[in-house]
Specification:
Layout (H helix, E strand, L loop, with lengths): L8 H6 L11 H9 L3 H13 L3 H13 L7 H13 L3 H13 L7 H13 L3 H13 L13 H8 L7 H15 L3 H12 L6 H9 L8 H16 L6 H19 L15 E16 L12 E14 L2 E11 L5 E9 L10
Length: 354
């Protein structure tokens, strides 16, 4: 998933701490690797590694892990990455961390994987920094069960923690923000997805800015988020994330149908032609706001932990329009609870609260 590919020449060179002329052999190995002459790259990197150049160990580990010019062997690659880590090669921390996280060629050890990812992040490697985010998000901050479905009890437990107990959250989010800012492609995509599902100031704009860095992407979830974000912009102003907006649609559309079509039994609205949402507006701004802290400039208000606000959503149906007042309350984990009350335009039937 995170393997360095032959085309990534500039990024690969940036991971190496030693000057190219430091030891004979490595320069020739790297040159051969860049032109995909793996047989020569293998021989030269072995010679460099044998001479004590940690860069040679790292390059050899990459080729052995990926099966480039030699049979793939994760265990041998892990041993070479360990030598590269000891020699201070920045990119080796992430590679070795990923092997420990998967138990690929080594015994699975998430604590060691996390420690290695942190060291790589501290050294300034965007790949290691992003992997640190992945480990924290899937580990202590994860709330999916073994089947990949949300564990609602775990979600509520995580959401209820005070800010003082959110150190892992801050570390994970800042790792993602930083890696994306450095242009690491997987981090940019993950950030766009994250912003699409998180309530915060200007998150839709941040999401669209991230998407602009991913021309030609094929991620369907991101395509859906972008479509929803553009739709919200055309309707008016809303503090909802694309995901929260989608989550709100079914209940609020039924509420709008109940009012515009004069339906007294909300269940009957499910059989009526659904009203169309024609406008949205923030009627009461966020009060009592609390945000997850961030040390990455520009993201201090990107994650709403607590706060309430109201929006007025206007629906058209059965020849009438109706305003639905939607009240939102941050749920502590990027989403929000919602309730609504409806009000018809003057001259229509009385409103019925749901």
């Amino acid at each position: 998933m995170f393997a360095i590919r032959a085309r990534s020449v500039t990024g690969f060179m940036a991971l190496l701490l030693f000057p190219l002329a430091a030891l004979a052999g490595f320069a020739e190995a790297l040159t051969a690797y860049q032109v995909r002459d793996y047989a020569t790259a293998i021989d030269e990197s072995r010679a460099a590694a044998a001479a004590g150049d940690a860069r040679g160990s790292f390059l050899l580990g990459v080729m052995i892990q990926n099966g480039q010019g030699v049979a793939a062997n994760s265990g041998e690659a892990a041993a070479l990455y360990e030598k590269a880590v000891q020699g201070g090669v920045v990119g080796a921390f992430s590679k070795l961390a990923q092997l420990y996280a998967r138990g690929d060629g080594v015994a699975k050890d998430l604590a060691k994987a996390l420690a290695l990812a942190r060291r790589g992040a501290q050294a300034g490697d965007p790949e290691a920094t992003f992997f640190l985010h992945v480990l924290l998000t899937a580990g202590p901050l994860g709330y999916l069960d073994a089947a990949g479905k949300p564990d609602h009890a775990k979600y509520r437990q995580l959401a209820a923690r005070p800010v003082g107990e959110r150190g892992s959250d801050v570390e994970a989010r800042d790792a993602l923000y930083w890696a994306a800012a450095k242009g690491y492609p997987l981090a940019v995509m993950s950030l766009a997805l994250t912003l699409g599902g998180t309530v915060g100031d200007g998150n839709r704009e941040r999401m669209l800015a991230a998407l602009a860095k991913l021309p030609g992407h094929t991620n369907q979830a991101l395509k859906n988020y972008e479509q929803v974000a553009r739709h919200i912009e055309r309707l008016g102003t809303s503090y909802t994330s694309p995901q929260l907006f989608l989550d709100s649609q079914v209940t609020q559309m039924v509420a709008g149908t109940v009012q515009t079509c004069g339906i007294r039994d909300p269940k009957s609205a499910e059989r009526a032609p659904l009203a169309e949402l024609v406008a949205v507006a923030i009627s009461k701004p966020v009060s009592g706001a609390a945000y997850l802290p961030s040390k990455v400039a520009g993201n201090e208000r990107a994650y709403l932990l607590a706060g309430e606000w109201e929006e007025r959503w206007t629906y058209r149906g059965c020849g009438k329009t109706a305003d639905v007042t939607v009240r939102f309350m941050a749920d502590g984990l990027g989403g929000a609870f919602m309730t609504s009350a409806q009000k018809l335009q003057p001259g229509a039937a009385p409103a019925t609260a749901l």
